[in-house]
Specification:
Layout (H helix, E strand, L loop, with lengths): L2 H9 L3 H9 L13 E7 L11 E10 L2 H20 L4 E9 L5 E8 L2 H9 L1 H10 L3 E5 L2 E3 L5 E4 L2 E4 L2 E2 L1
Antiparallel strand pairs: 1-3, 2-4, 2-5, 2-6, 3-4, 6-9, 7-8
Length: about 170
Amino acid sequence: MSSRQDLYETHLGSEAMAQFLETIPAHTTTDLDLKHYAYIAGFLDRDGDRKECAIMMLDQRITCKSAIARESVLSQLSQLADAVQKDPIGVLTFMAFRSLDDEVGARIYSRFESRAAMEAFIMRKGVNDFWQACKEFVSGMEQRGYVPNGKGWLHRGGETVETGAAL
């Protein structure tokens, strides 16, 4: 059985997941995202203090023109993540991912201390340089902004996940 088949038949078909899928619609503003990604670069919690953010850009999804184009974007994205990690002013989280579901997808997950920090980040020279360097390889990009919903960090064993509500 493939790992993808395991995911859908075993995990999503489990009793625990059935309870989750029954409960979650009342607590979310969007459908579940059942896409799969692999971590490329970046950091989850800049200071390690699980500080609540003011704004999360949870759904910054990039669609590349081809698998080869995605490799170029991922290389540039990895460099951007390294630069942000060295100078993370106002950025609490910046993580880059590649899609496991197709050969053209990438994703950026970021959290910011404030709206001003997010706006300053978007205008940052390195961020603009990234988009300029990648524009010939990108066929589309979509993003959704989220704000905290008061739930804070969720703890499950050794894993930690931040939750948010859509703007």
